[in-house]
Design brief:
Length: about 180
C-alpha cells in the first residue's frame, strides 16, 4: 500500500479541467510551457500546493492544497484559464472567439470548457484514490502501458519519494472507483 502524505482537512481539492470540444492542445510543447509559467505566476499571486498532477492532451487532473482558511480555487482557475487563453489560446486553436451570444457575453474563446469538476478530498483514503486515478489516467486512456511512461504527471516524483513502486499500474488493469474524475 502506498504511503501518502497526510491530507490537510478541508482545503485539499481534486479537479478535472477540459479543453473546449476536447481539443488535444495541452501536451503540445508551447502549451505546456505557457501553462507551467501561468501556474507559477498564479501560485506567486495566490499560494497553493500541487499534490498530484496529470496533463492529458485534452484535459488535466490535479490535486491542490490551499492555505488554511482559503478555499477560493475558482479564482485561481479563472486566472489560469484566462491567462492561458490570452497568451496562446487563439494561436493553438486557430479559431477566433465563438459567435454565439453566450460566449460573446462572457468574453470566452474556444479554448476551455466553461466549468471544471471539483471534489473536496475528504480524508487520506480519498486522497489515495484520487492520486491513483490521476497517475493511472494515461494508461486508462490507452496513451501508455505503464504510468511511468507518461512524462506529464507527478508519477515519477511519487516513485522518487517511495510512494509508488516504478512498476505500479503496469501489470494489471487497475480497478478505480467509478465516481472519480468526471471525464
Amino acid at each position: 500500500m502506498p504511503n501518502y502524505r497526510r491530507v490537510r482537512e478541508g482545503n485539499t481539492f481534486f479537479f478535472t479541467v477540459v479543453t473546449y470540444g476536447r481539443q488535444p492542445l495541452l501536451c503540445l510543447e508551447e502549451s505546456r510551457a505557457a501553462l507551467g509559467e501561468i501556474i507559477k505566476e498564479t501560485r506567486a499571486r495566490m499560494r497553493f500546493g500541487i499534490d498530484a498532477w496529470v496533463l492529458m492532451p485534452d484535459h488535466l487532473h490535479c490535486i491542490w492544497t490551499l492555505p488554511a482558511g482559503d478555499s477560493d480555487y475558482s479564482k485561481r482557475w479563472g486566472l489560469i484559464k484566462a491567462a492561458y487563453t490570452k497568451r496562446i489560446g487563439k494561436a493553438l486553436t486557430g479559431k477566433a472567439q465563438g459567435e454565439n451570444a453566450s460566449r460573446l457575453k462572457h468574453r470566452e474563446q474556444l479554448v476551455w470548457q466553461r466549468r471544471f469538476w471539483e471534489h473536496r478530498i475528504r480524508d487520506e483514503k480519498d486522497f489515495e484514490a484520487h492520486c491513483d486515478y490521476i497517475h493511472y489516467n494515461p494508461v486508462k486512456h490507452g496513451l501508455v502501458k505503464s504510468p511511468k511512461d507518461w512524462v506529464y504527471s507527478t508519477f515519477n516524483r511519487y516513485v522518487e519519494q517511495g510512494i509508488y513502486s516504478e512498476d505500479w499500474g503496469s501489470s494489471d488493469i487497475m480497478k478505480l472507483p467509478e465516481d472519480i474524475g468526471a471525464e
